[in-house]
């Protein structure tokens, strides 16, 4: 567990019971130097560097937003961010540019995302409970295998998976995208949850056990309510990864009725051949909006999530 | 510990059990396997089964319609002669060997600037992190295609200072570079991990070094790098594994054909074309196993070399 909460108070609420050995931050001695002129000059230089870097990074995104709101021809002429008139026509033409209105693809994506989130929450938390709390034969072997699958490239399994799913008639359905998640194949989340459960004091399980609770009850009534932050992190990451996932949709969804947002956008690119960047940009922004909202409201879980799996 | 730490620790742990462990040796096999049912089914049917099947298919000629036809090492012999495949390996290696180190260096640099108790940290962190959430999407790949196009944003800006830029993604010399730049742009996720790691380095080490008159470079080389090395290692291993599998950006930017002149024909893109464009699934499976072996070798080298530079505190 990291000490991110020392840097930002808002992460404090997710300061999970993961690590009992948090080290206090001991950088306060920097404060005595802060007023010296040199230190101030250095701080200002740093801010200038950071603002410059940040501006370069964010500029393309802002420009895409602005460009989507102005006439098509300006996209090839105007690199600035100044908006003279607000032109929403790109959005209306982009929305209805494909066989179905763009909302249809958003809905398809939403169905897949919800299925994947539910799948990951249920299956990964169950596996994590077993790995973190239960003693069983070959537990270390299985745990090791689980960690190894974390590093397995998807391509090694994709051809036979495709053969399997096409033989049971699942091509052009959402099942090939959702079913693997119901089977805890996202080892990243199993690992994240194992780490989290290990940090929950065992006394709580013991108390419940003495009161006569079995494992299903301990899992549902004691562990699950305490691991809500880990479940939130899982939900958010699953949302973003599934929403952005292109490869599986490209392979399994060839019928325009079933297109998710990424493959719909790709079909849009192909059909336009670079003629109407405005509406293409407009729909790209529409497709990024859910991810951006999740980022705004779920940032602390995201940061916690990657820092946790990265460090401890 | 990180996933990598867990893996390397497992070897050590398999030794003799402690007395405390023996005392507490009752097992809950039944409950455990019930909780693991979904995972075990997934392991069998979604992971290990398909892995074995793809190993088998790699020795066959298979087009999805007829039964696989055993051809021995034919696919692998074909790979040795397939110059487009060799080119795609070159493209992927360039992407990994340039993109990953540059991205991690930028991530570490920004993390270090952000670390020293800077004001507005949450704001900066958000700004730098956002691109790594969006970077994998088709939408951003579309944006990149425009930005680095002949009349794209980059050339519009260059025109303002009187430079006529090339068509970055239509020129075989710069197309791959544009995609590598997109990878570097998503440095936010490793940056967050570096930030968290930097926070674990006690400030007194730096203070003691200052008292002894150490230069900033010495502090960086003798304190920051050794103490951060497990995290650099973690980022390196995961980014290498991930980058070998990069697909979406190359697919969208090149319109699915890996062009111009195969300069963005990533190994995974070629695999997709063979397997799902031409339904040459035996060959695609053989390619997938080559990819697995390459990633395995890279990861193994990483672990071996790590003994010489990664420093574990405990």
UniProtKB/TrEMBL annotation, chain A:
Instruction: Return the Polar residues bias intervals.
Output: 1-11
User: Domain ABC transmembrane type-1: where?
Assistant: 106-298
Classify the main location: membrane
Q: Which family does it belong to?
A: Belongs to the binding-protein-dependent transport system permease family.
GO biological process: one example: transmembrane transport
* Key words of the record: Cell membrane, Membrane, Transmembrane, Transmembrane helix, Transport
Q: Where in the cell is it found?
A: Cell membrane
Query: Is Transport one of the keywords UniProt gives this record?
Result: yes
What name does UniProt use for this protein? Sugar ABC transporter permease
Membrane-crossing segments per the record? 47-66, 105-129, 141-162, 174-197, 218-243, 277-297
The UniProt entry, under SUPFAM superfamilies, shows: MetI-like (SSF161098)
CDD domains with a match to the protein in the record: TM_PBP2
What topology does the record note for this protein and the membrane?
Answer: Multi-pass membrane protein
Q: Please list which residues make up the signal peptide.
A: none
> Where do the record's region annotations for Disordered lie?
1-25
The record's Gene Ontology cellular component field reads: plasma membrane
Q: Does the keyword Transport apply?
A: yes
UniProtKB/TrEMBL annotation, chain B:
Disordered: where is this region?
1-23
Instruction: Give me any GO biological process, just one.
Output: transmembrane transport
Q: Name one GO cellular component term.
A: plasma membrane
Q: Where is the signal peptide?
A: none
Q: What is this protein called?
A: ABC transporter permease
**Major localisation:** membrane
Q: Name one Pfam family in it.
A: BPD_transp_1
Give the location in the cell: Cell membrane
Q: Which SUPFAM superfamilies match?
A: MalF N-terminal region-like (SSF160964), MetI-like (SSF161098)
Topological type in the membrane: Multi-pass membrane protein
Q: Which residues does the UniProt record annotate as the domain ABC transmembrane type-1?
A: 89-302
TM stretches of this protein: 32-59, 93-114, 126-144, 175-198, 225-244, 284-305
- UniProt keyword annotations, A-Z: Cell membrane, Membrane, Transmembrane, Transmembrane helix, Transport
* Database matches in InterPro entries: ABC_transporter_permease, MetI-like, MetI-like_sf
What's the family? Belongs to the binding-protein-dependent transport system permease family.
